[in-house]
Write a structure and sequence with these properties.
10% of the residues lie in helices and 52% in strands. With 110 residues, the protein is mainly β. The strands form two sheets. Strands 4-5-6-7 form a four-stranded antiparallel β-sheet, with no helix packed on it. Strands 1-2-3 form a three-stranded antiparallel β-sheet, with no helix packed on it. Strand 6 (87-94) and strand 7 (100-107) form a beta hairpin. The termini are far apart.
Length: 110
């Protein structure tokens, strides 16, 4: 796996051993995990969080995740944050269109 500033690219390969016990890697497949998010990349999510939501990305109570909704094959950005209150806020963004598809407020039980 290779991490870069623009995202994550996964490399799948095999190893073969020669007679001197050195390993050689052969690239079989490269998977760019950022492709589903090209229409609404990290830079736009970051701008949305800092400018629209007025949140600090370095705050420990702010989380950003992404996943593919398998039921509808839709890439989603999922943002959650907690304020000083007992509420946790979450927003889901359609990564194809950049539209907010859901907003939720849940109560934290301590």
């Amino acid at each position: 796996m290779k991490n870069s500033r623009n995202g994550t690219i996964w490399f799948h390969g095999e190893r073969e051993k020669n007679t001197k016990l050195f390993f050689y890697h052969y690239l079989i497949e490269t998977i760019d995990k950022d492709i589903p998010y090209k229409n609404y990349p990290w830079e736009k999510v970051e701008r949305f969080i800092t400018e629209e939501l007025k949140l600090n990305l370095f705050d420990k109570d702010v989380e950003v995740n992404r996943y593919i909704d398998e039921e509808v094959n839709l890439p989603i950005w999922y943002i959650t944050w907690r304020t000083d209150s007992t509420e946790v806020f979450s927003i889901k963004i359609n990564a194809l269109t950049g539209k907010v598809i859901s907003k939720e407020i849940n109560e934290v039980r301590e």
